[in-house]
Amino acid sequence: xxxxxxxxxxxxxxxxxxxxxxxxxxxxxxxxxxxxxxxxxxxxxxxxxxxxxxxxxxxxxxxxxxxxxxxxxxxxxxxxxxxxxxxxxxxxxxxxxxxxxxxxxxxxxxxxxxxxxxxxxxxxxxxxxxxxxxxxxxxxxxxxxxxxxxxx
Length: 152
Hints:
Elements: E1 18-28, E2 36-43, E3 48-54, H1 55-60, E4 68-73, E5 78-82, E6 92-103, E7 108-115, E8 120-126, E9 136-142, E10 147-150
Antiparallel strand pairs: 1-2, 1-4, 2-3, 4-10, 5-9, 6-7, 6-9, 7-8
């Protein structure tokens, strides 16, 4: 029996509401002396995402193409904009989806969206906006805001 008040050992709980299942597609860097690695990810069900991490983190996680991972992001790091045709932006990934649920706020709306492959993502859209349930949207995530976790 654990002492009273002792924390249970297990999976950590975080404030990150977005947990996307994915696999490593590849790792890109500026060479062996570059301390940063851009990890390209294939989302389960379709779509791609990227995460910029340190070389040491990539080594500690033993990242290699095909490795299953979870890509984590705080909802506050996801910017949702109307329209479902993401243009390329360096250092960020745009994921097209459809607004599933909106929670209206005074300055911004919380948006739950469904990606093409069925995974869900939560983010925020600045007000005013014309978003409605069913609206086509793009969710933007900076590569530096995507945290990688081994899944299992």
